[in-house]
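Hi V.,

You were right to ask for the full record rather than a summary. Here it is.
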Amino acid sequence: MNITASDIESAIRKQTGEEVETVSFVNSGANSRAAAVTTKNHKRFFVKAHVMPQGDERRRMENEFRSLEFLWSKGERRIPEPVFMDGALGISVYSFVPGEHLESEKKQAAKLGEALDFLAGLQALRSKSGADEFGPASEARFSVAGQKQLIEERFGQLGVAENDACAAWVRGPLADGWRRIEGHLAGRMNDFKYYDVELPKAERTLSPSDVGFHNLLCEAETGRLVFIDFEYFGWDDPVKTVSDFMLQPGVPLADALRPVWAKKFFKAFGFKRRDLERFVLLYPVFSFKWCLIMLNAFLPNRSRVSAGVRQALFGQQLAKAEAALEGLQKQIKTREYETWAEMS
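Predicted structure:
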């Protein structure tokens, strides 16, 4: 459904009694169209009009709104305030957060502790009423075997990519890279006894899943961090959380801050030896998965743009995936990430 400014004005008037003065559509993600709204009483809202790719059954809008309602009810204020959701229109409305992404190493370093404090706070909510109503976070798997299976499923999806250059790269260099990861896993199986064992519920954490500086804003007025984008919220593996924060490519964590972040996270979440072993085992797997995520644009059900724009997007994303794979191969060779997990 193509949401118009008039649709948004009517919904806000009906739900809040506010008369809208301006509706400005803004840049948004692959799964939603967004608008900034100002009312005649100078209130500001952020509106997400959700788009569900063909074949994707995840109820992102409902999950995001419910998760933010849950967090708000527990006193968390480092998030947008949920205002209302209109399922018929396919929109959700939140308080507007003016702010900026933190891209420089200096700015990121100053806010690592604040980001970690928020994620540790989510972990502390595990036993609170309402937490059990959430399912697994998007693509959460709670065993090494489960993560390996997820990679293989993504490979199968890319096998039907309609772009020849992508298909050739997937069958060649990317497949070779995955075989190296499988060798990495196989070489450690004798020392790791939990390959098929799922992480107990008591050791999981609540997480936005898609977590990193790309989904953090430094609020203009207060300077505090505000966490946005909870479409994938749910129960997750803390090893995935610590890894994804370093690996997401949207607003990358500075390379020099990766060991700092990892060690702070391990301490805050009380990682034991088994958790550190799982990190060493799974970090390359999560890194490889991000190579695959960058190729989502090549999936047939993601092609909603014109042919010219799509071709340019294909080139950009393939180049990013190639660079990510090259970086991963260097990390596996140096095993730098293993030093982050050394017991003190």
